[in-house]
């Protein structure tokens, strides 16, 4: 796996740590990022991850001289996936005479307005480890995540109750009562209105609605 590193990061110690972990590091003069990682999307198209790395002091300095927003804009323009890493363990709110909400506002703007993830690392070794993890994760085969909540398959009893609950005005309790009365869905479907009304909380109107759903001809739309 390859990581392209800006030559100005040579003295940070990150390159040495990346090589230790078996990464191939290519050193170049980069204009819009400190690190570039290449990957592929689910359709096998090549994507580039552009990583801007800042120490906490540099982050604060770049707010003062207004470099930061321009750098984030260029990340968004030039890379498919932009990423900001903030490195250091100092308290970001105590290093300079900044109002805390100014810093929070900048972080919120980067994450929300520019939709750029922000990750935090403790030092150059931690940053190198994070880059390796990102590169390895991107190399793994991926699939679209399911948006449906995974759950255990329904039992036959649960499926029967679910089907009856879909009828008009039928909740869990009435569904159970109907199944207890008629034993099977087939018998329930074949029951007439009078028989349906023998079940508690099934009146004439509800019985009529159930029979209408079960017996009315389906009209397909064209």
Structural descriptors:
222 residues, alpha/beta, DNA polymerase, domain 1, six-stranded mixed beta sheet, 10 helices, 6 strands, 45% helix
What is the percentage of strand-forming residues? 15-25%
N-end to C-end Cα span: 54 Å
Strand elements, count: 6
Order of helices and strands: EHEEEHHEHEHHHHHH
CATH topology of the largest domain: Rossmann fold
Average pLDDT rating: 89
Query: What is the annotated CATH architecture of the largest domain?
Result: 3-Layer(aba) Sandwich
Largest sheet: 6 strands, mixed
Blueprint of the fold:
Layout: E1 2-6, H1 14-20, E2 24-28, E3 35-40, E4 46-55, H2 56-64, H3 67-78, E5 81-87, H4 100-113, E6 118-121, H5 124-139, H6 156-165, H7 172-182, H8 185-190, H9 193-196, H10 204-215
Parallel strand pairs: 1-2, 4-5, 5-6
Antiparallel strand pairs: 1-3, 3-4
Can you describe this structure?
This protein is of the alpha/beta class and 222 residues long. It has two domains: 2-139, Rossmann fold (3-Layer(aba) Sandwich), CATH 3.40.50.10130; 156-214, DNA polymerase, domain 1 (Orthogonal Bundle), CATH 1.10.150. 45% of the residues lie in helices and 17% in strands. The protein contains ten helices and six strands. It has helices at 14-20, 56-64, 67-78, 100-113, 124-139, 156-165, 172-182, 185-190, 193-196, 204-215, and strands at 2-6, 24-28, 35-40, 46-55, 81-87, 118-121. Strands 2-1-3-4-5-6 form a six-stranded mixed sheet, with helices on both faces. Helix 4 (100-113) links the parallel strand 5 (81-87) and strand 6 (118-121). Helix 1 crosses helix 5 (124-139) and helix 6 (156-165) packs across helix 7.
